Amino acid sequence: MKTDDLIKALQADGSKPVLPLRRAWVVAAVLATVIAAIAFFILLGPRPDIAVAVHTLRFLFKFVLTLTLTGTAFVYLRALARPGANTAHIAPWLVVGPVLIGLAVVAELFAVPADQWATYWQGQNNLVCMTYIPIIGLGPLAAFLAALRHGAPTRPRLAGAIAGLLAGGLAATFYAAHCPDDSPLFVATWYSVAIAILMALGMGLGPRVARW
Predict the structure, then answer these.
(1) Residue 153 pLDDT
(2) In this structure, is residue 5 part of a structural domain?
C-alpha cells in the first residue's frame, strides 16, 4: 500500500464514530437483559406456582444470590475494560455471592435431615438447569464481549471469563423464576456448573474478541 493510501485509510478509520465506553455498557446491559428475557419467555416461562413461591424465602433467596453475582461481575467487568484501572479493591466483592450461597448451604444442612441431602442436592431439573442457563446466557455474553471491544482490556482472558460470569448471573436470574428447585444445595451445585460453562466460553473468546 502506498503512503498516501495508508494515510487516507487511517483518516477514514479515525473519522468513524466511536461509541463512548460508558454508553457502550448501558447499551450492552439493556440489550443483554432484553435478549435474556426474550429467550426465557420463548423457551421456558415462569413456573406454574410462582404466585405462591414468591412468598417463600428460599425462592426469593435465589434472586438475591443471582442479582448479587450479576451486580458485582458487572462492576468488575467495567473496570477490566479500562487499561491501567485499579481493580484490586473491586475483585474481592466477587466472593459475596459464593459466601451467601455457602452460608445458605450450611443452614440447610442443619435444617434438613441427612438422609434427604442427596434428594435436595439432585433436585428435579438439574439437566434442565445446566442446559438452559447457558442457552439463555449466550446472547448476553455476546453483548458484553461486544462492549469490551469499546474498551482496552489488558487481561482479555480474565475479562472474557468475567463477561461469562456476568452473562451467567443474568441468565440464572431469569431461570430462577422457572426453576422448581429452591434448595441452596441445588443452586450451589447446578447453577454454578451452568455459569461455569459460560465463563469457560467467555475465557476462550475473550482474547479473540476483546484484543486491541
Answers:
(1) 81
(2) no
